[in-house]
Specification:
The chain is mainly alpha-helical. It is built from five helices and two strands; from the N terminus they run ααααββα. The protein is globular and about 45 Å long. It binds zinc ion.
Length: 176
């Protein structure tokens, strides 16, 4: 499945920046999840707490332990928090990072059931409205930003920037 969900006009994310930062997980499709990270807090108290949550959720969804994966996740979480502490952006970027590892089973789809994006400006919940692209647009439920409430592009860019700032591996990604 790797590469099957690249951000692109074909997969429903017609954003110009996608060509610079192609992703491999279906981020936009995953935005309307309703999972709660860390009891609904925007920012976990520690990187360790989030790493423990990752491990717990993985174990809930799988029959096997994966110590190597937990170690990789813990390391990535620590690095990601240096750039953007919000759990939800971190979680999406973490899924992307783990999905790109060559040496392990790249199953990260389960992660997307455990995250809920928030309004990047005020932290409110989001409301989703159908769009012509077939993917829902994410709008701030508190209507911050007077009149302009669509946050879809801001969310995608924030996650992509976080990923690029943290892992600096964009050069190595084959652009389509
Ligand atoms: Zn807002």
């Amino acid at each position: 499945m790797k590469g099957a969900h690249k951000f692109s006009p074909n997969s429903g994310a017609p954003l110009s920046r996608d060509r610079r930062y192609p992703g491999t997980i279906p981020l936009r499709e995953a935005l309307d999840g309703s999972g709660e990270l860390s009891n609904g807090k925007l920012v976990s108290d520690t990187a360790t707490a989030l790493a423990r949550y990752f491990k717990r959720m993985h174990q809930r969804r799988h029959t096997h332990e994966d110590a190597e994966l937990y170690q990789a996740a813990a390391l990535a979480i620590k690095r990601l928090r240096e750039h953007d502490p919000w759990d939800c952006w971190l979680w999406y970027a973490l899924a992307e990072r783990l999905h790109r590892r060559d040496d392990v089973d790249a199953d990260v789809a389960w992660m997307l059931d455990h995250v809920e994006a928030r309004c990047p400006r005020c932290g409110s919940r989001l409301q989703y409205e159908p769009s012509v692209s077939g993917y829902a647009n994410a709008k701030c439920a508190s209507s911050c930003g007077a009149g302009h409430t669509d946050r879809t592009v801001e969310i995608v860019e924030r996650v992509l920037d976080l990923y690029a700032d943290t892992f600096d591996e964009i050069d190595r990604i084959t652009l389509f």
